Amino acid sequence: MSTADSGRSGDAAEGRAVRVLVVDDQAMVREGIVLLLGLLPGIEVVGSAGDGEEAVDLVAAHAPDVVLMDLRMPRCDGVEATRRIRARHPATQVVVLTTYADDDWLFPALRAGARGYLTKDADGEEIVRAVRDVMSGQARLSPAVQRRLLEQVTAPAPPAPGHGGLPDGLTPREAEVLELIADGLPNAEIARRLRIGSATVKTHINNLFAKTGVRDRAQAVRYAYRQGIARPPRTDLPGADVT
Questions:
Q1: What is the mean pLDDT of residues 189-194?
Q2: Residue 130's closest CA among 46, 65, 83?
Q3: What pTM, to 2 d.p., does this model score?
Q4: What is the C-alpha to C-alpha distance for residues 132 and 23, in angstroms, rounded to an integer?
């Protein structure tokens, strides 16, 4: 899948091609992205993966500069894969390339460490620009995604519950757990942060899910933002070029 010969001559800034890993569970889409990138100057595709588990393994094996990451995938979704990659390989940047731009995926992906977020209607020029921007420490968001971020950041804070109370009968500890979920932490890390057992974390999560009526962690994150228990991530907006 390598396009090193055409890529290395096109990346004058670094003197070599930018090494990219493509992750998407649909083989036809994945192969199309690989083919598109192979035609672009300054890009070397070092591999492709069909799910998040495979992506994590390939990052360890090939040390790509950038991962183009789909989100909704079997075994390990793109949010969890992004979290693992950024934790284990901080030099590798992640650009989300997905069909989904709703809150249930957008905010968890940014919390997990993605520095770019594009939808699949992006053309080759936009993808290359996103790859180069995240390599230089900037963010790259599609126009729709940046509008959504701005709406969340500038939205008025919800009224504080009276007398220090929490919504839906949540306890202070359950609210702490919910805030850490919104920060993208897995159960084991929540247990370490709060110095409690993993079984206790699961109990708190089950209780807060029951009280709030959410069905999964993505919905819990959205609930936390709406209730003011957690704040959406503030991406480096001045660097988030939307042209």
A1: 89
A2: 65
A3: 0.62
A4: 18
